[in-house]
Amino acid sequence: MLKEIQGGETIIILNGSTPVAQLSAIAPSVSRRPKVGKRTSPPVRYTTDAFQPLTDDQLKEWGL
């Protein structure tokens, strides 16, 4: 049933001949995985001092 619902179908559930519930997709299932190597977000940027060694005071702050 889930494949049918994901394909856009709506399923009505009956109690005898009385409809009591409806199953339908929340949103159309169109998500596809990006191809390998395709950018999905902007590149990460960092400041030039990001990889500088920590000072003794900074090490103490971090408990190291």
Low-confidence stretches: none
- The number of strands is 2
Strands of the widest sheet, in order across it, are 1-2
Mean pLDDT: 89
Order of helices and strands: HEEH
Assign the structural class, choosing from mainly alpha, mainly beta, alpha/beta, alpha+beta, or little secondary structure.
alpha+beta
- Form type: elongated
What level of helicity do the residues show? Answer: 10-25%
Largest sheet: 2 strands, antiparallel
Give a quick precis of the structure.
This protein has 2 helices and 2 strands; from the N terminus they run αββα.
Structure, described:
- The protein is an alpha+beta fold and 64 residues long.
- The protein has a domain of 28 residues.
- Helices cover 17% and strands 17% of the residues.
- The protein is built from two helices and two strands.
- Strands 1-2 form a two-stranded antiparallel sheet.
- It starts with a helix and ends with a helix.
- The model has no long low-confidence stretch (mean pLDDT 89).
